[in-house]
Amino acid sequence: MPSVISTPARRSAYLRLFSLRGTRAFTTGNLLARLPMGMFSVSAVVMIAGSRGSYALAGAVTATGLVATALAGPGIARLIDRHGQARIAVPATLLSVLGSLALLLCVRFGAPDWTLFAAYAATAATPNIGGLSRARWAHLLRDDPGALHTANAFEQAADELCFMLGPVLASFLTGTFFPEAGTLTGAVLLLAGMLLFTAQRATEPPVGARSRAPSPLRSPGIRPLLACFVATGMVFGSMEVGTIAFADAHGHRAVAGAVLALQAAGSCAAGLVFGARRPAGVRLGHCLAAMAVLMALPWAAAGAAGSLPALAGALLVAGMATAPTMVTAMTLVQRRTPADRLNEGMSLVVTGLLTGIACGSAAGGWTAQHLSPGTALAVPAAAAALALLVHTASTGVRRNVSADGPEG
């Protein structure tokens, strides 16, 4: 297998990355399978609300899926670490696709409400697709930290891109064709992408003997990192609700999705630059500090200018702090998690983010309802400051116990 280091230096960091054999094929499959992650929630809300006339029911069903995913994710990842990606991810994806199709049929044929919850809960079997891809990069680039940094930046940019395009595609499909079109297309893309991804066996991390390594939760420094991910998830959840509430209050609810996409666009662009440049000496604390400062901009824009265009510009800038923070934190998780339990470690990150998103959505919604939409945009700023505080406190404790190296 060719080495990233031996590739001519004149080529860009990303071209060098994808010169490795098999990386383009598994990335193509991964992107196909990851795109539906931004489609399913929007598709389900449109489908259920349009059929049953209740956004409350639609929100409750999608929230159930979120909780189920957070609970099931680490267990599925543990099985993947123990038995291999292809052996577990394919049947798990099939179960998830069946759940999506069952939801579609239950909505289409007027099944009782409880069946919607049961069907959507089955979609929690979806493996952490981004985590599977990051595990492959960590295996392939285990001897090249610089290239692994670039790979993690690419993966974060891919996350942002899929969550930008997914809701747009779902809205187009459900509005242009029929309400179930978004869910059906997402299920097809998920299955096709996962089959292509897992077919690339040459890049799959090997499965050794049953791991005796402790749970990633017991690895030094992991718990504070997960706390940071929870706080970061609160940033995402509260920013989404606050932006929608602010746009609605100004009579522009229809463009709220496009405004939110600007935050993801800023993050995607910053992530690609961060991955290519590989700035020396940048630690997680620096990224969290930048996020704490930039996440205050939307709140300030909403209060000072009070206009949606001003908020849109602030979201674009604020989003630029997200990807560097996620890339740096994800690299730390890879370093601190036992190699044969890496998928489980990545899944715990997703659990932390989902928990934070749920908490942030609730906090942002309460603030928008009982105070004001503009004040709700202070919640993401507070959550970003909390993430910085957690990291600063944990770093101080770790320094008093033992040296932790330069990455934290």
List key phrases describing it.
18 helices, transmembrane transporter activity, MFS_trans_sf, mainly alpha, MFS transporter, 408 residues, MFS, membrane, Growth Hormone, Chain: A, single chain
Could you describe the 3D structure shown?
It comes from Streptomyces monashensis. Keywords: Membrane, Transmembrane, Transmembrane helix. GO terms for molecular function: transmembrane transporter activity. This protein has helices at residues 13-17, 23-34, 40-52, 55-83, 85-108, 113-122, 129-140, 145-176, 181-198, 222-249, 256-277, 284-294, 296-304, 308-318, 322-336, 342-370, 373-376, 378-401. It has 408 residues and is mostly helical. α12 (284-294) runs antiparallel to α18 and α13 (296-304) packs antiparallel against α14. The radius of gyration is 21 Å and the shape is globular.
- Strand-pairing-aware structural class: mainly alpha
CATH architecture classification of the largest domain: Up-down Bundle
Number of discrete domains: 2
Estimate percent helicity.
over 70%
Strand content: under 5%
Let me know the largest β-sheet: none
- Amino- and carboxy-terminal Cα gap: 31 Å
Q: What's the CATH class of the largest domain, please? A: Mainly Alpha
CATH superfamily annotation of the largest domain: MFS general substrate transporter like domains
- Unreliable runs, pLDDT <50, ≥5 residues? 1-11, 401-408
Q: What is the mean predicted local confidence, pLDDT?
A: 85
CA-atom Rg in angstroms: 21 Å
Topology as H/E string?
HHHHHHHHHHHHHHHHHH
Total helices: the number is 18
What best-fitting shape do the alpha-carbon axes yield?
globular
- Number of E strands: 0
Per the CATH scheme, the topology name of the largest domain is Growth Hormone, Chain: A
